[in-house]
Amino acid sequence: MSASPAPQNGSGQQQQQGTDQIHFKFCRECSNLLYPKEDRATNSLVFACRTCHVAEPATSYCVFQNKLHSQVGDTAGVTQDIGNDPTVGLPLCLLCGELISCDSCGDFAEYMAWNRPSQQKQS
């Protein structure tokens, strides 16, 4: 896949391509991001630099695109293999540094149960 877009033959294809994907534009003078702005004199859309105020006419009229998906792509925060993670240590008390154990049975928290699945927790 190339980094630059392919040239379009028809204006209908160019209008369709403009609504499919939004490209970031950068100032030719200072290389800052160009922001969409209305040119009130001509009542048209331009992309202008906020730093040096250079403006260029818009090639596409799409300035915002909200795509809604029915499935979630990322599962941030899901740690199903944390029991096999060698960097996770034993649960220690922050005050005394001793292992934290259960108040009712004296077992070392739930860490021992899910860290060693071969051993059965006794009730």
UniProtKB/TrEMBL annotation:
Pfam families named among the record's database cross-references: Zn_ribbon_RPB9
Region ranges (Disordered): 1-20
Keyword Zinc among UniProt keywords: yes
Domain DNA-directed RNA polymerase II subunit RPB9-like zinc ribbon: residue ranges: 25-78
Superkingdom in the source lineage: Eukaryota
GO MF annotation, one: zinc ion binding
Biased composition annotated in UniProt, kind: Low complexity: 8-20
GO cellular component terms, A-Z: nucleolus; RNA polymerase II, core complex
Keyword set, alphabetical order: DNA-directed RNA polymerase, Metal-binding, Nucleus, Transcription, Zinc, Zinc-finger
UniProt similarity note: Belongs to the archaeal RpoM/eukaryotic RPA12/RPB9/RPC11 RNA polymerase family.
Protein name: DNA-directed RNA polymerase II subunit RPB9-like zinc ribbon domain-containing protein
Source organism of the structure: Trichophyton violaceum
